[in-house]
Structure formats: structure tokens, C-alpha cells
Amino acid sequence: MKSTPARRRPRVLRRRFGEGAATVVIGAGVAMLVQPFWLALFTWSFPVILAGAAAFVVTSHFPD
């Protein structure tokens, strides 16, 4: 099975873009966790952090 050259892969399937997006999601989850104003944001903070961490693990296996 042939692999597609890196220059032909969509930008979304590259490690740099995916890890950056996952890091932003993790940061948003932490911001949701430490804000004292809305209980709904606090309630959803852990699932957001968990989704960001899972996305980071997955995208870290993408090619450069």
C-alpha cells in the first residue's frame, strides 16, 4: 500500500495543525475550569479538557 506524499495530504491531516488545535481546546477547557461566573462552563470543562487531550494523542501520530 503506497503512502501519499506529505505535500499532497490535506492540511487537516498534518501533525502541526492538529496538535495546535488540540492545545487550543485544552486551553479553553482550563479557562472554563477556573472561571467563577457560569456553572455550565465549569460543568463542561472536564469533558472539553478530556476531548482536547484525546485529540492531541491522536494527532501526535499524524505525519509531519
Descriptors:
single chain; 2 helices; 64 residues; mainly alpha; 64% helix
Question: Any overview of this molecule?
Answer:
By secondary structure, the protein is mainly α. The protein has 2 helices and no strands. Helix 1 (15-34) packs antiparallel against helix 2.
How would a textbook summarize the main sheet? none
Residue share in helix? 55-70%
User: What fraction of residues sit in β-strands?
Assistant: under 5%
Which spans of ≥5 residues are poorly predicted at pLDDT below 50?
none
- N- to C-terminal distance: 19 Å
* C-alpha geometry: elongated
Q: Give the integer mean of the pLDDT values.
A: 88
The overall strand count is 0
Global Rg: 15 Å
Q: How many helices in DSSP terms? A: 2
Helical/strand content category: mainly alpha
Q: Encode the helix/strand succession as letters.
A: HH
Write a short abstract of this structure.
The protein is an all-alpha fold and 64 residues long.
Chart the SSEs and their pairings.
Layout: H1 15-34, H2 39-59
Helix pairs in contact: 1-2
